[in-house]
């Protein structure tokens, strides 16, 4: 697909990033090489001066990595993308490119656990002040901005409370304050939400989740809206060093081809399961952006084309019931991560969000009894049947761990 053609996002997902390949292979070959030869001393010197065609060294650029970067930049509607070794590497590199000692960052309080730790524990040791706020509360966001605020960092929907922040409004607040809006779009993928089209300057993803989608890669990506911001990001990534290797880039690029099909199935399954959970007498509350009971349902409908795959809910029996339920699932896997084809279930307070500490969890609305599910693309009725028997176990209606006991 030539880059000057305007295609729908489902078409871009299949063909994006592969228009500049030599010899017309259907998929980008894996350039499994750490370095590239120069045609001459002059050619090498030219490349180091940023001119001419060619590659130098894989940390600085590689054709297989370039291909997946072009695909993701096109999907997000950004100028350029930078593939990173993990989602956290993408976030850390973004902060490295945009912040210096004396600056201030405002960050959503419900975010991926290690992001919270990076912002509130690590950045202050480098002289960067941090404030966390509920970014669904626009007055609170406005009040948190300071003259030295350089970044407004929003994760929407937020992990694991699924609180939704208004992208167009937060972009306006950031820009009025002279700051950049950085959005973690991991939970939605570019199929369901394109933050740049709502005013975001930078988008980050954990490629580990939906974009790769098959639970076999750890990776991340940064998308920059403005070509002028790109050199600073490339320089930072090159010196911080957290790049995505060629083989992982190849796998992610392959995963992206089915992204729009997978997202459609994830959303269809998740809505069905969220509705099932909402009707279950053991379940105290359910959060899913496309349930009408979600506090920001209207905003999610406005800025997204689906509710995503992640559901959080609370059980009547609290932590103890949650523990029994997680020990009773058979089809759903008890594991952290999300966005893969398989359904995963986990307990944020003791797992993904343990490092945040009890106080930050309470402020962000992550109660100890919360269970998080990443709904896969299996048959929805099979997932519901498994949850049904696990909820019965949680209520003490069947012997706990029956399957595991039988297996050992
Ligand atoms: C997983 C995740 C990250 C971190 O990504 P890694 O690839 O694990 O480093 C960041 N943000 C969100 C929302 C995530 O789910």
List the topology elements.
Elements: H1 9-15, H2 41-48, H3 63-76, E1 80-84, H4 87-98, E2 104-108, H5 113-122, E3 129-133, H6 138-144, E4 149-155, H7 167-176, E5 180-184, H8 189-192, E6 202-206, E7 220-224, H9 230-240, H10 246-256, H11 259-278, E8 283-287, H12 297-303, E9 310-315, H13 318-328, E10 333-334, E11 344-346, H14 358-363, E12 370-374, H15 380-394, H16 402-407
Parallel strand pairs: 2-3, 2-4, 4-5, 5-6, 10-11
Antiparallel strand pairs: 1-7, 6-7, 8-9, 9-12, 11-12
Pyridoxal-5'-phosphate binds at residues 86-88, 112, 115, 155, 159, 184, 186-187, 206, 208-209, 218, 220.
Give descriptors for this structure.
7-stranded mixed beta sheet, globular, Aspartate Aminotransferase, domain 2, single chain, disordered C terminus, 5-stranded mixed beta sheet, binds pyridoxal-5'-phosphate, 39% helix, alpha/beta, 408 residues
